[in-house]
Design brief:
Length: 223
């Protein structure tokens, strides 16, 4: 079984403050300071729509699947700096999902060219931007259902339904490396995670004694 990438979701992570709370910085003190809160954020040519088209065209959506990532939802956060001339630098990943996802987003941002710089007190300034990109992978012969897609709540009982194409429920076996897993009378599972981070379940076909696939869940503190 090979995970199949469905889509990529992306949006800007905003640092912008409300106008009334934006600090006033004297013009003569704006030098090479890197701002994380500005009046007007740095913008890609064409603004949000232009940036969306650029990402759609240049991101390789198959990278995590090609590198063997388990089925699941993965959000990559990359931070970078746009200077007063609109040049992009200091690109770094703030997450570590692996499977080539962070590297792919960084590579595309490096190729994004010149931006319109951020503005503070009417002057161009050097400022941070953050870009999240969410990869969603599904199985080609199974799916899982949870209250929140691909997320489980820490230290809570989470109901998980596993459906495998053309395999009866009685031939399906699910295992977890940590936490508690109980098979319910209706064929669903209750998973009780006890650690933050991610939990990967393994799905097996007991009749054929083979692995069907793995699913990676993000563990969250509350729904």
């Amino acid at each position: 079984m090979k995970p199949v990438l469905l889509t990529i979701l992306f949006y800007f992570a905003s640092f912008q403050l409300n106008a009334q709370s934006t600090p006033v910085v004297p013009a003569d003190s704006i030098t090479d300071k890197v701002f994380d809160k500005v009046d007007i954020e740095a913008a890609f040519p064409g603004d949000m729509n232009g940036w969306r088209r650029f990402l759609e065209k240049n991101l390789n959506a198959n990278v995590p699947a090609d590198n063997g990532a388990p089925v699941g939802m993965y959000t990559v956060f990359v931070q970078f700096v746009v200077d007063k001339q609109g040049n992009v630098s200091d690109i770094k990943a703030l997450t570590s999902n692996g499977y080539g996802m962070e590297e792919e987003v960084i590579k595309v941002i490096k190729r994004s060219g010149a931006w319109t710089p951020a503005s503070q007190n009417g002057r161009p300034v050097k400022a941070y931007r953050k870009q999240p990109v969410t990869f969603i992978l599904t199985g080609d012969d199974f799916d899982v259902e949870t209250q929140i897609p691909y997320k489980l709540v820490l230290n809570k009982d989470n109901r998980v339904v596993v459906n495998v194409t053309k395999v009866p429920a009685e031939n399906i076996e699910v295992s977890v490396p940590e936490g508690v897993l109980v098979r319910n009378s209706d064929g669903s599972y209750t998973i009780h995670p006890v650690k933050k981070g991610r939990l990967v379940i393994t799905i097996r076909n007991t009749k054929k004694q083979k692995e069907v696939g793995k699913v990676s869940f993000q563990i969250i503190d509350q729904p």
